[in-house]
Design brief:
By secondary structure, this protein is mainly α. The protein has one domain (about 35-175). The protein is built from six helices and no strands. This is Yip1 domain-containing protein.
């Protein structure tokens, strides 16, 4: 029995591109458990790869798993409090896809500048500087997605900032 993952649909990549530009919400994604688990798997792997430049292999794997657990659990808890359980699967899928894209961009930047610049230059400081706009974009993306779940703008922004700070700023140094 073949597994039908709607990622190959024409609708899903178009929706993701629209979500990157803040033109479409997660409610346009297909409601698929396989897509959600695939997105979280890719997110965990991409987060582990992005952290592997600064962490040990074990620390990177722990970070990848913990970031998936926190994103999944935080989204589940938030939507449970809001009594919007019906939107959980699509919202979690969208958050995992967007976060995975951010991790992929960070990895590409790290490879690009790590190879292009010689070792005595402060490559890590430059990458942190370049990572900041990606983190800001993640906050706005999360807020946009939470806004479509029924949060008002200020609580959506607060929840989004809390998610990004906990996963990207607090968890990263802990998992070294």
């Amino acid at each position: 029995m073949p597994i039908n993952i709607p990622l190959l649909n024409q609708q899903t990549p178009q929706t993701v591109l629209k979500m990157i530009n803040l033109e479409a919400s997660q409610l346009s994604l297909p409601d698929s458990r396989e897509l959600m688990w695939g997105a979280f798997g890719a997110y965990g792997v991409l987060q582990a790869i992005a952290q592997s430049f600064n962490h040990s292999l074990l620390g990177s794997l722990i970070y990848g798993v913990m970031s998936v657990v926190l994103l999944y659990g935080g989204t589940y808890g938030l939507l449970r409090v809001l009594k919007e359980d019906a939107k959980f699967q699509r919202t979690a899928t969208a958050l995992a896809i967007m976060s995975g894209l951010a991790a992929l961009i960070y990895t590409v930047l790290h490879l690009l500048f790590g190879i292009a610049l010689p070792p005595p230059l402060p490559t890590e400081k430059l990458l942190r500087f370049l990572l900041f706009p990606i983190l800001i974009w993640m906050v706005f993306m999360y807020a946009f997605l939470f806004r479509h779940v029924s949060l008002r703008p200020a609580p959506a922004f607060f929840a989004a900032a809390l998610f990004v700070i906990v996963i990207e700023v607090i968890l990263s140094p802990i998992s070294r």
